[in-house]
Amino acid sequence: MKVETSPPRITVLGIGADGWPGVPERLRGLVLDAPVVLGGRRHLEMLPPRPGQHRQVWPSPLSEGLPPLLESLAGREVVALASGDPMVSGIGTTLVGLLGTDTVRVEPAVSSVALARARMGWSAERSAVLTLVGRDPHLLMREVAPGRRVLVLSSGPGTPGTVAALLVGAGYGASRMTVLGDLGSASESRLEGTADDWVGTPAEEVPRLHVLALELAGPAGYGLVTGLPDEAFEHDGQLTKRDLRACALARLAPSPGEHLWDVGAGAGSVGIEWMRAHPSCTATAVEADTVRAGRIGRNAHRLGVPGLRVVTGRAPDALDGLAAPDAVFVGGGATRPGVLDTCLDALGPGGRIVVHGVTMETEQLLAQAYREHGGELTRVAVETTAPIGTFTGWTPARTVTQWCLTTSDR
After folding, report:
1. Which of 147, 170, 376, 394 is in Cβ range 3.0-4.6 Å of 383 for a Cys bridge?
2. Hey, is 360 helix, strand or coil?
3. Are both 289 and 200 inside the same structural domain?
């Protein structure tokens, strides 16, 4: 939601863990002279008294309360207080998104990420940053790989125990976990141990403000290239198999920020791998079977993309009202009246669609779609080795007909 009318002029000031004494002199006057100061309770309480100044705690929930608050401050000069760098998972990003850079000016302090890297001796190029502030901790599972270094922005003192349990469950109990508390303050602390050690640690023993540094140690991961092993997914046989999945995703071509419809999702493998391609990729899995829909959710959490939306319903009706897709995969149900037309109509210029079929009826439908719309029609046959007595032979899987189209081809 955008705030359009008479927005306030806002300076977002980052404050380090050393609090008000660490604010540069040139910025102290800006804060004290402002008619309105917004911030968290902790930030507002650290300010010296200022008669006549209006100080207000951020509304909760922020997403609902912030736009009307900003509208009530129309035309006024406002200072908003934040922790560290307000553009690192902070209020600065939110305010710029609502009001734009012409209205919002950001004065950052040294971020907790920069301080954590300095304390660990890690370069920016060789470490990743993941925020779990207000997010599902299963996002970490996308980052898990041996030797990887990850800085986690924690949502609170319970985060290390939660992360440790996830790592142990994935066979990464030997990973080093370092809790860097109150970075940049006089009470800065450092607690170290393995994930095995951290499991069950009471939250009371963890600083409320901290960054979690992970040095991951465990078995080889699945990687981020498409075509995960079939055994990576819980399924009942309704699964787009590995080689066909890689073939489909190569044509769906996930790009940052794009959205996919995975129609007739089965185990959700295509939507999950689409989202694993980049953290900003999103997907909606549409599955008529309630048991399979639940299974999709479990697969998504285990493979690090808990944000996958699962819609239980049958296409085309279940597609009504969904966010517009940049790409569509139809793994099942293509012959149902209206499914293919609804998917094609939903795509804008440059959109991609890939449809798989194993029956003669679906093959005929896809041949007709090829004649009408163009694109690419392919038959894919995969054979794997299997024992034949004391020898080894080839076992063929069902041949799949694949139709793909980029909307500019039409």
Report:
1. 394
2. helix
3. no
Phi, psi (rounded to 5 degrees) for 387? -65, 140
Q: Are residues 65 and 206 in the same domain?
A: no
Q: Does the bond joining 51 to the residue before it have cis omega, within 30 degrees of 0?
A: no
Which ranges in 306-397 belong to alpha helices (H)? 339-346, 360-373
Spell out where 240-343 has E strands: 259-263, 282-287, 309-312, 327-330
Tokens of 350: 């440059």
Backbone angles phi, psi at 95, to 5 degrees: -70, -40
pLDDT in tens, 367-393: 999 999 999 999 999 999 999 999 999
The Cα–Cα gap between 66 and 247 comes to: 45
Residue 66 CA from chain centroid, whole number = 23
What would the pLDDT profile of 139-167 be if each residue is shown by its tens digit?
Answer: 999 999 999 999 999 999 999 999 999 99
Quick one: 177 and 122 in the same domain?
yes
Q: Considering the chain, what percentage of its residues have pLDDT values greater than 90?
A: 87
Domain containing 234: what range? 230-409
- Residues 166, 239: one domain? no
